[in-house]
Amino acid sequence: MIVNNDYDVIIAGSGPSGSTLAYFLSQKKSYKVAVFDSRSWEDLWGKPCGNAIGKHHFFELGIPEPQGDEIKQTVTGISIISPSEHVEFRIYGEGYIIDRKKFGTRLLKTAVDNGVEFYPRTQVLGPVFENAKLAGIKVKINDKIEEFKGKIIVDATGTAGVIRRYLPKEWPVSEELDPKDSDIAYREIVKLNYEIKEPSILKIYLNQKVSPGGYWWYFPEGIDSANIGLGVQGGMGYPNPKLIYENLLSKRPEIRSKKEVISSGGAQVPTRRPLDSLVWDNFIAIGDSAFAVNPVHGGGMGYAMISAYWASKGIENAFEKGEPNRFNLWITNVGYMKMIGTKQASLELTRMFLQRLSDEELDFIMEKKIVDENDVDILGRKGELNESAIEKSVKIVSDFFKILKMTSKPSLLLKLRTLSTFMNKMKNAYNEYPETPYGLSRWKENVAEILKNFKAEIKA
Questions:
Q1: Nearest-CA neighbor of 222 among 194, 242, 248, 250?
Q2: 430 is in which domain, residue-wise?
Q3: Is the dihedral of CA 289, 293, 299, 303 positive or negative?
Q4: CB 104 within 8 A of CB 66
Q5: Predicted TM-score of the model (pTM)
Q6: Where is the Digeranylgeranylglycerophospholipid reductase catalytic domain (predicted)?
Q7: What's the alpha-carbon Rg for the chain, to the nearest Å?
């Protein structure tokens, strides 16, 4: 029975970002918080994905680590495999393949035990406005429509953006996702009839024929189970990833040799820089709704948690200042951009660069080590391309032409130089992210100009 429909904070969505924000806010125990989700307790964090997350996120953000049966596999490294599969880069680092439902349930239950109210199996229909101000949300509960009022409204509903998409178009948070800036993914968790040789190593395969504009993955979940899937760039007319999986991947020996499919599913994943602003007057977008995802590999759980962390800081500041407006929430933007948004924006350029390469060019880059394991690690952690990689590529490509007298590689070299130049420009732009909303318009124009010029140059 609903006793009170008025809250300090309303969170629409209880996935990784929504549950994490509820957890952070519950630690204060001074806010009245409600979380709404169409899923039940038994199906929390049910979105299909690779289920991988770096261990460092938990220490950096102060989130309890997965434990016990919440961990399906401890990860010690990732192998990136060339289209020909003749070259393999291995990058070492600690992480987990988690049982999303079990870990998500514990995180949200901790928040509920601390006073957060959770409304499962409820459908958020959209925002409620009063006197042109966002005042709450409209929710369908047991075939009845109710309105819930909140001082701050948070959209954690993923790419659907159930609240965000109905906000005034002049609000910077209402920006729409271009389908080309997303991946459409499909994955299966399968029981295998063989023992995996290196269960702690995740494998990412680059292959434009199998996964155009994306990649396919093989993530062990123990010694005889694996999370296997692929993502393809959206908006390009590519085949449905499920069909590609069935027609190509399922015929590979390591995938064909399976006992059963434990679960399957697909989802859309944003693969671009974050929203230019995650906040506006008494509104915050987090997780996929804020495009908080690594643009290169599509990993979203860590980014979702980071967006939730900075949302909690913005909410605390707003209540301390006594007014939940864009100015008092702005530290959410500044904190997120400094911690991960700068890297994310640079990696968006890397994603665009990779999507324009042929398998031949990808093989060439990896075989000749124009970009090696160290450079890949830099791209993953810092969003930078080491200048030495560019210098090295000049000599390699020059020598290559002397021997083979080919004419296609100078364009690849120019693309690499262009990528390095524009990644630095984007990093500099994000390092100058405005400290207040007043500078947002001019900053957005600068970023848009960088993107426009980059696209023009790599196309040329």
A1: 194
A2: 344-459
A3: negative
A4: no
A5: 0.92
A6: 181-269
A7: 22
Report the alpha-carbon distance of residue 189 to residue 29 in Å, rounded: 38
Go through the chain and tell me how many residues it has. Answer: 460
| DSSP states along 39-78 | S-GGGTT-S-S--EEETHHHHHHTPPPP-GGGEEEEEEEE
Q: Do the domain assignments include residue 64?
A: no
Q: Is residue 63 in a domain?
A: no
Region 453-459: mean pLDDT is: 90
CA–CA gap between residue 368 and residue 384 (Å, rounded): 20
Domain of 294: which CATH number? Answer: 3.50.50.60
- Is beta strand 201-205 parallel, antiparallel or unpaired with respect to 71-81? parallel
pLDDT one-digit tens code per residue, 249-276? 999 999 988 889 999 999 999 999 999 9
The β-bridge partners of 34 are 10, 117
The owner of tokens 């401890």 is: 74
- As a whole number of angstroms, the distance between CA 93 and CA 173 comes to 34
* Contact in structure between 140 and 52 (CB atoms under 8 Å): no
- Using CA atoms of 68, 72, 76, 80 in order, give the dihedral in degrees to the nearest 10: -160
Question: CA–CA separation, 453 vs 198, rounded Å?
Answer: 43
Residue at which a domain ends, from 306, 329, 352: 329
